[in-house]
């Protein structure tokens, strides 16, 4: 069964988007691991709970990206819908976090 041009283009777009999401998830994951390692080497009293949260968030984002990539290449509707739902949810969460940081920026500084 041959794919039409639009199906191939959609597959490529979703795959590229998944790779971008995978990259940012990997950055979060490695940044969280880096922070945990640096905190343990410094033997400081900094709580590592937020660092572990960054690691878990990175793992979740990487898993979502892999789900989207595989769903695009296998043309699995369920995987693509799950990917789109989670990607939209992550976008809303990041948007809320950005607004919170912007609003509380004046309170901290």
TrEMBL record:
The keyword NAD does not apply. It is found in: Membrane. GO terms for cellular component: membrane. It holds the Pfam family Tetraspanin. The chain crosses the membrane at residues 12-39, 51-73, 80-103. InterPro entries: Tetraspanin/Peripherin (IPR018499). The keyword Ribonucleoprotein does not apply. It is a multi-pass membrane protein. It comes from the Eukaryota. Keywords: Membrane, Transmembrane, Transmembrane helix. This is Tetraspanin. It comes from Mesocestoides corti (Flatworm).
